[in-house]
Hints:
Blueprint: E1 4-8, H1 21-31, E2 35-47, E3 50-60, E4 68-70, E5 75-78, E6 84-87, H2 95-104, E7 112-114, E8 123-126, E9 129-131, E10 137-139, E11 145-148, H3 154-165, H4 182-195
Parallel strand pairs: 1-2, 1-6, 6-7
Antiparallel strand pairs: 2-3, 3-4, 3-5, 8-11, 9-10
Amino acid sequence: MKKSIAIQMDNIETIDYEFDTSFLIGYEAQERGYDIFYYNPKDLFIKENTIQASGYYLELLLDEKNYFNFKSNKIIAKLEDFQFVFLRQDPPFDMNYITSTYILDLLPSSTIVVNDSYRDYSDLYYAAVNLEETGEITTTSSRAAAIISTGSNITEAEENCESGISYISGNNIFVRHDIAKPYLIQKRIDNMEKLR
């Protein structure tokens, strides 16, 4: 199987080139030898029990004025032919988004759907990632990403966040596991009491 990924995202023509993480993910995959297939959420469908999408193969470039080229005409592709499908789109996360997640859940296990698993636990909010001139994706020194979740109490929400964190990986990334732990919350309360 040829190395290839599919990215479901909003219109590439209107992204914020400097800050769009979908572009960064695609570019990094391209640098690792993957072909990039791009399609919009409205172009995902099921036909003859097969998950398909209508989209384009892309070349991504580090040029703000010309950051992508279509390598193909608009074609229909079977998503099971890709190693990875990245579900990347901006809010609102409405019924169209939810429908996409359920459709992509039908893909065989040989195709890994990225960005769907943590939705059961938490939401991922990027705070700061940078695309360097070398093509590497780096983070700032602190608060590079934030995981937010809910639960019936603080302990349950914190456990959901910890589950979501397990889907983040990279070199030299430090994660704080003390946020929302009872002892840290009590420490903050004690500090506030001293200030009264």
